[in-house]
Amino acid sequence: MPTARDVANRAGVSQSTVSRVLNNHPHVRPETRKRVLDAIAELDYHPNQAARSLVTQRTGSIGLVVGDIRNPFFAETAKGIVDTSRSYGYRVVLCTTDNQDTLQSEAIKLLRSQEVDGLIFGSVRMDDAEVLALIESGFPCVLYNRVLKTDAGSYVVLDNRKGARMATEHLLKLGHRRIAVLTGSRQFSTFAHRLEGYSEVLREYGIPVDRHLILDHQAYAADRIGTLRRLLGQRRPPTAIFALTDDYALQVLDTLAELDVPVPEGMAVVGFDDIRIAGHSRIGLTTVAQRKDLMGRLAVESLMELITARAEGRTPQPIRLVLEPQLIVRRTCGAQR
């Protein structure tokens, strides 16, 4: 059976370096960490996890809690989280909640019972008291994509207001003045902040925000055809739809096709997220891009800092990272002909 000394010899490092890698110490050069992890894999070395946990007060696992892993955005960010966690020698336990508070509570209890070293949340509501209490207790938690109303804790998010402003202003510059918006629940910061960005730009252009152009996705999903027919039947129908996620935008494109409304000639469509399929040549969705791989990586790196601080008895400062959006112009907005 291989030993830590065998791993050190194979990687060309000291046993203390192997120990630092196994204990996820932050002060290890990435190339050195990779050599040690490669040696561990080649030798099929299995350190005694129970003994390590007693010494390091770590289990080598973290929890990832998201609303719906079927959503391409969460699937793509989850890959970045899993890949980065693996580079730290951590495994990820995934729980989905269907955006239900009871399922989230069950997930947190399950993960805490498994003694995970920290939690990453992708779908918190702005008024999520349970997550806020967890953060205030000092347990290592990182939020990504969405934040709490109090701005508490550590998080990695996009500048959602700025992204929505970019998309709305792009449509206005193309000549659109009646721009509908398809939004999810404003209990989530993503939708609340994107709606704020959309509304701000309209007002700056002297265009009043028309509540009849703000569509709730839950109602839309229940009656897609009827909702768009009513929208198109307005006395002054919109000429563009800004869907606040790419998943919503793809649903809109499908419905418009069923109604024989050409895109972008009959209706311009813009999304948000830049999921992989958005760039498919047959779709060409204009959208606001998020660096999902970067967001996932930074969420894990931030969590590792919090876990290390807790193990060392330190109280860390919150880590708050806001990423820049990028407008990706493709076919569906009408700018590319």
From TrEMBL:
Domain HTH lacI-type: from-to ranges: 2-56
Entry annotated with the keyword DNA-binding: yes
Xref: Pfam families: LacI (PF00356), Peripla_BP_3 (PF13377)
Transmembrane stretches, start-end: none
GO molecular function: DNA-binding transcription factor activity; transcription cis-regulatory region binding
Superkingdom to which the source organism belongs: Bacteria
Keywords noted in UniProt: DNA-binding, Transcription, Transcription regulation
Stored SMART domains: HTH_LACI (SM00354)
Protein name: LacI family transcriptional regulator
Source species of the chain: Caldinitratiruptor microaerophilus
Upper taxonomic lineage: Bacteria, Bacillati, Bacillota, Clostridia, Eubacteriales
